[in-house]
Design goal:
This protein is α+β, with helices and mostly antiparallel strands. The protein has helices spanning about 5-15, 20-35, 65-70, 75-80, 95-105, 140-190, 195-210, 215-225, 225-230, and strands at about 40-45, 50-55, 85, 110-115, 125-130.
Length: about 230
């Protein structure tokens, strides 16, 4: 891949406000950079199932989903096995009959799926689609180079997303702890009991009502904080 292409991908990563934006940009750029590519998508395995995280303009609807439903297809095999899959002419392809019929009906005659190494995921692939048989023959080297470069960018974006999620989890935990502490304080004042007894009473109420402790405490705090509720007492 040229240095100009690498710079473009780096700039896309910097401009991106998140993983989704980056991936959409990458799929569009893959179509520009890989000879013969009419459309592109990115497949990643998450939570034990394959998902299309992004697709370029011109990607036929349902093209990847049909593979996931059947558990068979070039992008499924590339993501799950880590081996490149190329079907230069789907009309002569016998490996994925159900998918092949659907792809041909959507106007796709050539498919190249290149695996991508993604940290913390079980498999990923960049999928490139051509509208004529053999149209991706000359683009395979460019596709591999693009997938390697895109993998680096995706890994950086994923690390950023994980840090953001971790920070969000910490904030959620702190907010949960805060509302529980407030509810404990309310019970201590109302019932003239200590903190341990107040927490135990809240836990029993949570189990009895089948409501999360955090939510139960939030309801109690909101009720006490509501001026209309206090005026009715």
């Amino acid at each position: 891949m040229s240095s100009e292409t690498s710079d473009t991908l780096d700039q896309a990563m910097v401009r991106s406000s998140g993983l989704d934006t980056l991936l959409r940009d990458l799929t569009d750029r893959a179509v520009q950079e890989v000879p013969g590519a009419a459309a592109c998508s990115i497949t990643v395995s998450r939570g034990g199932r394959l998902l299309t995280l992004a697709g370029s303009d011109g990607l036929p609807s349902g093209l990847d989903q049909r593979q996931y439903e059947n558990g068979s297809g070039p992008c499924v095999d590339a993501a799950e096995t880590g081996a490149e899959q190329y079907a230069p002419d789907l009309a002569a392809e016998s490996r994925w009959p159900a998918y092949t019929r659907y792809a041909l009906s959507a106007g796709v005659h050539c498919v190249l799926a290149v695996p991508v190494a993604v940290e913390g995921e079980t498999g990923a692939a960049i999928n490139l689609y051509g509208v004529r048989p053999g149209t991706l023959d000359q683009g395979r080297d460019a596709a591999r180079a693009f997938a390697a470069r895109a993998g680096d960018a995706i890994n950086v974006a994923l690390r950023i997303e994980r840090r953001r999620q971790s920070a969000a989890d910490v904030r959620t935990a702190l907010l949960s702890r805060s509302v529980i502490d407030q509810a404990i304080g309310i019970l201590m004042a109302q019932e003239r009991i200590d903190a341990s007894a107040a927490l135990e009473r809240l836990r029993r109420a949570s189990q009895h009502r089948n409501v999360k402790l955090r939510d139960l405490c939030g309801q109690l705090v909101a009720k006490v904080s509501d001026p209309a509720s206090r005026s009715r007492k």
